[in-house]
Write a structure and sequence with these properties.
Layout: H1 2-13, H2 17-34, H3 39-42, H4 45-56, H5 58-76, H6 82-94, H7 98-111, H8 113-129, H9 133-136, H10 143-161, H11 166-189, H12 193-206
Helix pairs in contact: 1-2, 2-4, 2-5, 4-5, 5-6, 6-7, 6-8, 7-8, 10-11, 10-12, 11-12
Length: 222
């Protein structure tokens, strides 16, 4: 599948746009049948290459939007899965229409809270980045407990990466830092300053990184 994707990019560069589009659609729909480990590439690099084709060849962008719309319709009808929701998330991110994912997630939360709970991990960072703390509170009742889960995942993955590439470790560290910062901001925004301090201090015992030395203002005694 890696070779297939590279050949498709070569077709784009050669101006064989229609044929390249057919291959991008095929890759999106069938690549995992042949190589399940390509799931990350399929939802990131492959969609990015496809969108770039769309800049030169509008039918490519139209095809991506059509697939996104079909996925959204299935999810609105309750026929989706975590995998399909993740696909939609990736498509909307590529199309720079993340708010469409948020709008759909709110619809699902209203009609099927249990299903929304299984999708939460996919949208968590987006919801916190958009500062939709009203929505986040439904899924993070305890910010410190959430940090403990984040820490456990990070430590497990980081330990396994110690013999691997430095880029992998850098990625894991960056992701951990962002999750901690999101949780500190969430705790502060929801009136839990002491929890925010605890999360920051716990995080620094896990990873000594200047990005985690967050300044947290004293309470307003006004």
């Amino acid at each position: 599948m890696t070779k297939y994707l590279k050949e498709t990019q070569e077709m784009v560069r050669a101006g064989k746009h229609e044929e390249a589009l057919k291959r991008f659609v095929w890759f999106h729909e069938h690549a995992l049948e042949y190589e399940p480990a390509m799931s990350g590439v399929r939802r990131s690099f492959a969609l990015g290459f496809w969108k770039k084709l769309g800049e030169a060849y509008p039918p490519a962008l139209e095809a991506m939007i059509a697939i996104r719309d079909a996925d959204e319709q299935l999810l609105r009808e309750g026929k989706g899965s975590s995998s399909l929701f993740h696909d939609l998330f990736a498509l909307n991110s590529t199309l720079e229409e993340e708010k469409k994912t948020l709008e759909l997630f709110e619809v699902i939360q209203a009609v099927d809270p249990q299903k929304a709970k299984t999708y939460w991990i996919i949208v968590k960072h987006m919801v916190l980045a958009l500062k939709r703390y009203d929505l986040a509170k439904l899924f993070i009742p305890d910010a410190e407990a959430e940090f403990d889960r984040v820490k456990s995942r990070f430590v497990a993955l980081y330990d396994r990466s110690k013999t691997g590439a430095e880029k992998v470790r850098d990625f894991l560290e960056g992701h951990f830092v962002q999750e901690v910062r999101d949780l500190v901001e969430f705790a502060l925004a929801t009136g839990n300053r002491e929890v925010a301090l605890t999360i920051r201090d716990k995080a620094l015992t896990v990873l000594d990184d200047d990005r985690l030395r967050l300044e947290i203002a004293p309470p307003d005694l006004g």
